[in-house]
Amino acid sequence: MLVTLEEILKDAEQRKYGVGLFNMLNLEMARGIIEAAEQENSPVILGVAEVHLPFIPFDYAQIIMNKIARDAKVPVCLHFDHGTDYKKILGAIKAGFTSVMYDGSALPYEENIANTREISKVAHALGCSVEAELGHVGGGEGGTDDGHEEMYTNVSQVNDFIRRADIDALAVAIGTAHGKYKTKPKLDIQRLADIYKISEKPLVLHGGSGLSDEDFRNTIKNGIRKVNICTEMCIAGLKAFNAAYEQDTGFELATMVAKATVQEVVKGKMRLFGSSGKA
């Protein structure tokens, strides 16, 4: 069942839970994610990130994702994550994705607004939701370094940004980072709580892999409604594949073991985020 990001997060806000965005890099990851959602009776956001397109060409990704989402027994939002290239974002919208993220977080404030607003005009005209980022989550997509406080979301800019950029969800920077953390993250929960009190749109947490269960509970309690997960699935799946392959199970069975491992990671996150049973 294909739904927009706006629809999926509206219910999450009403019932105060988080929905996982799980990025896929191949067919087996996508299958593991959707099968987990169906087993948990959970809404889910199935994504592919622009930075991952060298590993899974978009023409293939959108075929896999559209087929899986439309056949799913639970609400699925198809999301193009961390888009910076206008043509690639437009391609995702035309391919039937129901959500896109324009990531102008490294740009000056006014330029981020202007660029995001142009994406929003096209996306909304075609029934697609838009996410954007205010502040800058550490690491860059793929992970380089952890977040720094000077890059955190400015609370006073939140609704000005939301209104002028005309977005449906806001990604915030509160101390998380993409990829593997070099040091234990220290989240600014008070900043998040202050943002949630005033924000006119649902909030998004990037850099979720590596946070503690308590971190997730605290962020969802204080307004996070979409949580991005990728690295944790990739690490778990790779370890499972290598272990199975080394036991001479063969490539085919090792691939199935990796899929099952991804599936278990996703199911665990759905239970933690509170989305299980909410479809």
Walkthrough of the structure:
With 279 residues, the protein is of the alpha/beta class. Helix content is 47%, strand content 15%. The protein has ten helices and eight strands. It has an eight-stranded parallel barrel with strand order 1-2-3-4-5-6-7-8, surrounded by nine helices. α2 packs parallel to α3 (58-71), α2 (27-40) packs across α10 and α9 runs antiparallel to α10 (251-273).
Question: Given the structure, what is the number of helices?
Answer: 10
Characterize the quaternary organization of these chains.
Answer: single chain
Strand content: 15-25%
Largest sheet: 8 strands, parallel, barrel
Shape: globular
Radius of gyration: 18 Å
What is the typical, i.e. mean, pLDDT?
92
Strand tally, please?
A: 8
How do the strands of the widest beta sheet line up side by side? 1-2-3-4-5-6-7-8
Q: Which class of secondary structure composition applies to the elements?
A: alpha/beta
Intertermini distance:
10 Å
Q: Note the run of SSEs as H and E.
A: HEHEHEHEHEHEHEHEHH
Uncertain spans: 140-147
Residue share in helix:
40-55%
Task: Please describe the topology of this protein.
Layout lengths: L4 H11 L3 E5 L3 H14 L3 E6 L8 H14 L4 E8 L2 H9 L4 E4 L6 H17 L3 E6 L23 H8 L3 E4 L16 H10 L4 E3 L7 H9 L2 E6 L1 H16 L4 H23 L6
Parallel strand pairs: 1-2, 1-8, 2-3, 3-4, 4-5, 5-6, 6-7, 7-8
Helix pairs in contact: 2-3, 2-10, 9-10
What are the main properties of this structure?
279 residues; alpha/beta; eight-stranded parallel barrel; 10 helices; 47% helix
